[in-house]
Specification:
Pectate Lyase C-like, 2 domains, four-stranded parallel sheet, 11 strands, elongated
């Protein structure tokens, strides 16, 4: 943390629209609108964002360590620009459409009840990630590490097993067609 930056701990922000650049630890952000703002070089540790609009937020070198997002609108976010050190995030009930996790190392990340339509996971490490009841329509998996990832309750995914590492990953028999899309075959019940 640079001298000119602030440090805020154990504070709850309700309906905030602006944050001062700095480090936030154990803070809660409720129903705040940060759409199109710039969080570059901010640092968040053990924080929660609940019911916030974070769409198109700039995340250059932003630090997220043990940060939970619940019921947030997060369209077009570039998590691939975040500070990789200690990157640890989870999502529950979020709209993450068209977000990018390109080359991100986000092992054991939990995506729960979230929309991930058109989201990019190319070359990301999602080892042991959990996709629990997520819509993965048009999500991009290209040279992605999905070892032991759990897709058993998710749907609309298209994952090519020949270019992604999927050993020991879990899939539902009802959505297994998403692993065969490239073959352009018809699967009937």
């Amino acid at each position: 943390m640079q001298e000119s930056e602030i440090y805020i701990q154990d504070k709850t922000f309700n309906k905030a629209e602006f944050l001062t650049k700095g480090e936030y630890e154990n803070c809660v952000f409720n129903n705040s609108d940060f759409a199109n703002k710039d969080f570059s070089a901010f640092k968040f540790i053990d924080c929660q964002f609940i019911g916030c609009n974070l769409s198109m937020l700039k995340l250059n070198k932003t630090g997220f360590q043990d940060v939970a997002f619940k019921d947030c609108k997060m369209l077009g976010l570039r998590f691939d620009n975040c500070n990789e050190f200690g990157l640890s995030i989870s999502f529950d009930g979020c709209q993450l459409n068209h977000a990018s996790f390109y080359k991100s190392k986000i092992k054991k990340t939990i995506f729960k009840n979230s929309q991930l339509q058109g989201t990019e996971f190319a070359e990301a490490d999602l080892t042991e990630a959990v996709f629990d009841h997520c819509d993965l329509s048009e999500a991009i998996f290209d040279h992605t590490i999905l070892v032991k990832a759990d897709f058993s309750t998710s749907y609309h995914y298209s994952i090519d097993p020949t270019i992604n590492q999927i050993s020991k990953a879990k899939f539902s028999i009802l959505s297994i067609a998403g692993l065969l899309d490239k073959y352009d075959i018809v699967i009937t019940p």
